[in-house]
Design goal:
CATH topology of chain A: Formate dehydrogenase/DMSO reductase fold
Shape of chain A: globular
Strand order of the largest sheet of chain B: 2-5-1-6
CATH architecture of the largest domain in chain B: 2-Layer Sandwich
Largest sheet of chain B: 4 strands, antiparallel
Strand content of chain A: under 5%
Distance between the termini of chain B: 8 Å
CATH architecture of chain A: Up-down Bundle
Oligomer: heterodimer
Radius of gyration of chain B: 26 Å
Largest interface: A-B, 68 and 65 residues
CATH topology of the largest domain in chain B: Alpha-Beta Plaits
Number of strands of chain A: 0
Number of helices of chain A: 16
Helix content of chain A: over 70%
Number of domains of chain B: 2
CATH class of chain A: Mainly Alpha
Radius of gyration of chain A: 23 Å
Helix content of chain B: 40-55%
Shape of chain B: rod-shaped
Order of helices and strands of chain B: EHEHHEEHEHE
CATH class of the largest domain in chain B: Alpha Beta
Structural class of chain B: alpha+beta
Number of domains of chain A: 1
Structural class of chain A: mainly alpha
Number of strands of chain B: 6
Strand content of chain B: 5-15%
Chain lengths: 461, 179
């Protein structure tokens, strides 16, 4: 059995046994829905319905109901797309990259972070879909034989690369998530007493029996999926950044974009994980599994990626001057002093200054401060995308075609709506799915549980 | 094997199961299978499970994806309808390949991941609606079971039971084997 240093902080508190882990995770699924959950899901589904209404109105009327114009043809829609895709990155990073690095703390958070990833990618996919205007011909993005010639989609375009990247990312994340869920569904199946619930979880568990050979295959599949999901995570947001970087628009046309976007994505993704998990652990009484140590680890990731983002902002500024390209330098002067200066300084404060507060151990380990800062980071990262997209577009080469973008109620409505749909999906997940990878957690109980640490400390004395 | 009997020996700890399995195998007993709520590391070589070849399967699927993606893009962009984009015409695959790298990569991952996942589910016999075959519902919670068949061993069911009871199991049961 793997041993771990006794002085390393335990990952599972509360003297748990294998059975306790099952009880703690399956208990809330078997029991009645708590009041708070019912209130939350009512609010979020109402918001979701409002958002769906806005989307239907938009599809029926046309994308003119957004504040887009001839100059600024991309604004909130693509901002929201990039923001949601970015949020999705934390889940795969936790489950794939941290698996490759054998980080045991990932096991308490990977299931819910992956669920978050999947829901966030669905929300992201909504935006390019409805931005097409005629969503019923959305299948034109795929290279299908047709009666126009045959005309094919353009494989030289990053927008098409995005189609492949996002659909691969979504479906591979879904499979990764579900393969991990199968054994846990089997645990729920074997605990359920009501015949209908037993039947449903029986179907969901695919008849998993936990044979030694099945587990051996399970571990290999998890490892290989993690291995191929890792470059996938990096490729997806790199490709998203190339939607901008391959354009000739000043402020977009930079080689720094792929790493800058990827670290920004991980940064905002971890912030969203913190926001959701800090509430979830309290509401579902999972404090023994997701505790201060886990939060601190995630905050460390936030410092690292947040600092990379900060350096990227400053590099962009410096290079815009150093390049001697006047359009490029104007784009940046316009960013911090033009009509969108407020957005720029919001972005700078939220993304560059606030994560640096995590250098203080007190703040890093404070749940209240983490929750507050995670929301600040989420806001900041939304503004980052908004600043990049709108400020670069609204004033480019030709002053006669300069313009401004003002959001309409439909811009706001669709965005708020996706937040509602996302939360509704996440709340349904916490109610009916095992929110912790409970069987994986059992496998680290002996090496990282506090009972084992106490035993080791006793022996060493 | 209508008259064969199956012995289920249950333990309440993964280390106890591992020790017991080693002991039984040392006595020349063939263990048919082990059921556990999580992977018991080190059990595979003891009960003679070979390493799975799913990683190779994944590689083969991924290479299929690579070839299909390149073939497709060659057909769409070079052969069927070569477009002149920004003064950079698409007349040769090799000159256009940098632009095709992202889609080739994504498609390879798509095929590799899904091909392996489908193979995994088929080989495991885990598909929607399949019946569960674990001998006891507690094996997905906190119990660990060794499964021994008398027809696969030289001993009788009673002899096997006697051998297994020396490994301090939590519970034991012998049943008629239903394949």
């Amino acid at each position: 059995m793997q041993q771990e240093a006794a002085i390393r902080e335990p990952l599972i508190l509360g003297n748990k046994t294998y059975k306790d882990i099952t009880d703690d995770v399956v208990g809330p699924i078997v029991g009645p829905a708590p009041r708070g959950w019912k209130i939350l899901i009512t609010i979020s589904s109402l918001v979701a319905l409002y958002g769906i209404g806005c989307i239907l109105y938009l599809i029926g009327t046309g994308i003119g109901v957004w504040g887009l114009n001839k100059t600024v043809g991309w604004a909130w829609d693509i901002t929201n797309f990039v923001w949601w895709v970015g949020i999705g990155h934390a889940g795969t990073l936790i489950s794939a990259v941290l698996l490759l690095f054998r980080q045991k703390w990932r096991m308490a958070i990977n299931r819910s972070a992956e669920a978050m990833t999947i829901f966030a990618v669905i929300m992201a996919a909504v935006f390019p879909g409805i931005h097409m205007g005629r969503i019923w011909v959305g299948y034109w993005v795929f290279p299908l034989p047709n009666q126009f010639g045959s005309l094919w989609v353009n494989f030289n375009s990053p927008l098409l690369w995005d189609v492949f990247a996002i659909s691969t990312y979504f479906s591979v994340s879904l499979v990764f998530w579900y393969i991990g869920l199968i054994p846990d569904f089997a645990t729920i199946r074997d605990r359920m007493t009501k015949p209908l619930a037993r039947k449903i979880y029986g179907i969901l568990s695919f008849g998993w029996s936990g044979r030694a050979k099945q587990w051996s295959r399970f571990e290999e599949v998890s490892l290989v999926l993690a291995g191929i999901a890792t470059p996938l995570v990096f490729s997806v947001h790199s490709i998203v950044s190339m939607d901008f970087a391959t354009a000739v628009i000043p402020g977009w046309h930079t080689t720094i974009f792929p790493p800058y976007f990827v670290s920004g994505a991980v940064f905002s993704g971890f912030a969203m994980v913190q926001t959701l998990l800090l509430v979830m652990r309290k509401a579902m009484k999972l404090e023994d599994y997701i505790h201060v140590r886990h939060v601190e680890y995630m905050n460390i990731v936030i410092i690292v990626t947040g600092s990379i983002v900060g350096v990227a902002y400053l590099t962009e500024l410096f290079i815009s001057w150093y390049s001697g390209v006047e359009y490029e330098s104007y784009a940046f002067i316009n960013r911090f002093s033009g009509p969108y200066a407020l957005s720029y300084w919001t972005m700078m404060t939220c993304n560059v200054i606030s994560p640096q507060l995590f250098w203080f151990k007190k703040i890093r380990r404070s749940l209240v401060a983490t929750f507050a800062l995670s929301i600040v980071v989420n806001i900041g990262m939304w503004f980052e995308r908004y600043v990049i997209i709108v400020t670069s577009l609204h004033r480019d080469y030709n002053p006669s075609s300069w313009g401004e973008f003002n959001a309409t109620s439909m811009d706001v409505g669709v965005f708020i709506g996706t937040l509602g749909i996302f939360l509704t999906l996440f709340l349904l997940f916490t109610r009916f799915f095992p929110v912790l990878a409970l069987n994986e957690l059992k496998s680290i109980l002996k090496s990282s549980g506090d009972s084992q640490k106490a035993l080791q400390n006793k022996e060493s004395k | 094997m209508a008259d064969s009997k199956v012995l289920h020996v249950m333990y309440d700890d993964d280390m106890k199961l591992l020790d017991a399995a080693r002991e039984l195998v040392a006595q020349g007993i063939h263990i048919k299978d082990v059921y556990s709520p999580f992977p018991v590391h080190g059990i595979d070589p003891v009960i003679g499970i070979k390493r799975t070849r799913l990683a190779i399967v994944s590689f083969m699927f991924a290479m299929t994806g690579t070839s299909l993606a390149l073939l497709g893009m060659w057909y769409f962009m070079i052969s069927d309808w070569p477009m002149n984009i920004g003064g950079k015409p698409s007349f040769s695959l090799i000159e256009n390949i940098p632009a095709f790298v992202p889609v080739t990569f994504e498609f390879s991952v798509l095929c590799g991941a899904h091909g392996m996942a489908i193979t995994y589910l088929l080989r495991n016999g885990t598909l929607p609606g399949m019946p569960a075959t674990n001998p006891d519902p507690r094996t997905t919670d906190d119990m660990f079971v060794i499964e021994i068949l008398d027809t696969e061993n030289d001993m009788t069911a009673d002899e096997l039971e006697a051998a297994a009871s020396k490994t301090s199991p939590f519970e034991m049961s012998t049943k008629q084997y239903v394949a």
